[in-house]
Specification:
- By secondary structure, the chain is mainly alpha-helical.
- It has one domain.
- Helices cover 70% and strands 0% of the residues.
- It has 4 helices and no strands.
- The protein starts with 5 loop residues before the first helix and ends with a helix.
């Protein structure tokens, strides 16, 4: 048996199990991009929403008190806000 990559072990501590994280993230993205949403997001809005979904999945499957997750959500929301025309 080979040892697991130390980077993956370290990320698992803050981000949680990758399979759980992926399931949560993909579920959120399916909701965000569902045809019934009837939204035409800009590329910036769409990417910000995808990244926010990823960060939420890390909070839900990993450490909720890992400050970087919350700061990243705020950052992606700010980038989307800056790209708004109004």
């Amino acid at each position: 048996m080979t040892d697991r990559d130390p980077l993956l072990v370290e990320r698992g501590k803050t981000h949680g199990d990758f399979a759980n994280n992926a399931a949560i993230s993909q579920g959120l993205k399916r909701i965000i991009h569902a045809p019934t949403a009837l939204r035409n997001f800009s590329d910036v809005q769409s990417e910000a929403l995808d990244m926010i979904a990823l960060k939420l999945s890390r909070i839900l499957s990993g450490q909720a008190d890992f400050k970087d997750h919350w700061d990243d959500i705020a950052g992606y929301a700010k980038l989307a806000s800056e790209a708004c025309s109004k």
